[in-house]
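Protocol step 4 of 5: obtain the predicted structure for the target chain.
Materials: sequence only (see below). No template structures provided, no constraints applied. The aim of this step is simply to have a reference model before the mutagenesis design in step 5. Sequence pasted as it appears in the construct record:
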Amino acid sequence: MPKSARFRILTRELNRLKKQFLPKISPIGLYSDRQLARTLAYRVLAHAEIESYLEDRAWEVAQDAKKAWDNSGETRLTLISLLAFSGQMMEIPPETLTPTKGNKKVSLDKIKLSKKIDSAIKSFKWVIDNNHGVKEANILALLLPIGIDSDDLDPRGLLLWIHLVKKEGLLHIHQLHHT
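Step 4 output (structure tokens):
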């Protein structure tokens, strides 16, 4: 499968950070305080790069589904998922479009699918803008609403991946030391 331009940027940035911050592996496992501090800096910056990548790609997928809907009425799994995970209530349709009692106008938010889709997109954008991490909850909040099926996510693999991302810099130092 071809790699996206955004994935190539992520890979390039992670490699650049690794070269700039991670020390060469010491065969005896001795590192200066400066080397350890730079390793921790790598961890923070690598987290930020991965978080940014996941957010950018999730938003791109959501936007593509919205554009397909706007341009041709194409319904994608992503759009259905965005609606399902947006927190919107599944309300029954109104009894009439022309009420004679109470509020004389039916809110477009209640009857127009395009308004519900716009609301779901806005809700997902809020999730992305307020995402601050690469923990399991953060990743699920980005992936499930764009149609990634939970059955396709191996919880053990996801947790292992998160653990490795967190420990990447520290693993670099200890990897050969413990082999």
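Step 4 remarks: Residues 167-179 have pLDDT under 50 and may be disordered. The radius of gyration is 23 Å.
Proceed to step 5.
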